[in-house]
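Entry: Adenosine deaminase
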Amino acid sequence: MSTFPLDLPSLRTAPKALLHDHLDGGLRPATVLELAHDCGYDGLPADDAASLAGWFADAAGSGSLVRYLETFEHTVAVMQTPAGLARVARECALDLAADSVVYAEVRFAPEQHLERGLTLDEVVHHTLTGFDEGVAMARDLGKEIRIGCLLTAMRHAARSREIAELAVRFRDRGVVGFDIAGAEAGHPPSRHLDAFEHMRANNAHFTIHAGEAFGLPSIHEAIAFCGADRLGHGVRITDDITVSSDGAASLGRLANYVRDKRIPLELCPSSNVQTGAVASLEKHPFDLLARLRFRVTVNTDNRLMSATSMSEEMLKLVQTFGYGWSDLERFTINAIKSAFIPFPDRLRLIDEVVKPGYAVLIG
């Protein structure tokens, strides 16, 4: 039996892998204030870090999608300069490393950071520079982390092919894949087929936000028409699962396909509740999908808006569903198996970092 309790201090020592984290959703409140001052942005709803953090959390948890999306207007507004982009990326790496995240894929939409004259290539360059600096600084503090960047295209815009080309252009410099995000309803992934075809033609990886605010058609298109390697969220796959009164589950053809193909689900418990994708943490399908052996992964989505971390997301799952250290190890290995990095690198992380780390905790 483990001598390490499943509490927050112990969880913060556990090696973790994160696949779904938005750069513009994870800023430090104090950094938002300082960058706003530096760039002359005067639209913030609070003028001290504690009040601003509270506003972000309240707005994101208000149940209003309009207020939830408003939070990003403020973070994106202060990420329009080389210094701002590099600082946010650098601090992201440091904050994740401090939480014992050993591998992370952090995504952002370069097209949203052009208001002050930067080009798409410059936006990506300065962001990757910040990640590199943060990784190096974390190593000096005794924390090893590897970060891959995902470039996101906004599904309501018309730049997805351009962003896909950008992702391929920077894939040897820290970009590991491509993504589309934004409102699902009315903006099906199949409208961006040329972007996904470009990624496939160049043997490049991509994930798609699907099955969060919209149901099975979004998931079906992402997989069948677009060829997604992973599903961003994907919680609505449960629309194709029927659970009888005795607890037996019957899977439809799409759910069976997702499970059979081991298509990873980038589940974000706190965020899924905030956005209304699920009614509550207790009703989150994470446990059902885990018990049915879907490839579930634990993710933060937006650490600032959800006032969360990977350790806190794990703690919520432990408290809600009664998971133990072995379960958390399995979810972490699921994530690394699903990472957009070469197989030998994934294997090394699992065998040399994750398994030894959990062996200590499991006892």
